[in-house]
Amino acid sequence: MLKQIFKLSWMFALMSVFAFSACERDNLTNDEDLVMDYLDEALFHLQSEGNLGRFGCFELVFPVTLEFPDETTFMGDSYEELIQAIQEWKEANPDVEGRPTFVFPIEVISEDGEVISVNSKEELHELREECGGHFGGHGHHGHHGHCTPCFEIVFPITIQFPDETTAEAGSRIELKNLIREWKQANPDAEERPELVFPIEVEMEDGTIVTVNSKEELQELRESCDD
Known about the structure:
3-stranded antiparallel beta sheet
């Protein structure tokens, strides 16, 4: 009788351990799902606000700075760095509500090669309206896997300003500084600086492609949706 009781006790103990382990796995899975859903939603919201990225009309010029709901900030040199930062922040702050936002100004490049300094959320929304005010009909689920551009501009590049003067940018940060300085000196200008063609871009597979005109740049961006 005692042996049977002992065996039953061990069986219940083992069942409890297995049940606890399964519950822990479920909790971990649920936590991971919540973090990834937050990541997708955060990136989708950042891009959809200004029709940015692969499915939009404009591309970010890195580096960009994000501010999180707890008022901490992060400056990233690529979408990959933003993805990692957002994921790590949410893992460390699972109960904090709200999404990261851009710290303005930011710079973007349009489909036809205009380089634009954006000084506020309102200006970003105005840009969104320039290309239709929509974001290609895509939802946020899985967005972190589709937010990166299908090509990147190879530096150095040359910029032409509305007064037809030009300047060379040897890096993304030099480009940002050139555009910000021009914007500060010409706050009411309606025309915008533009890329001087030809330019070279690096595709996702590492191929270098020469882009000879605005029209070719537009065609290349449109091909990103294929």
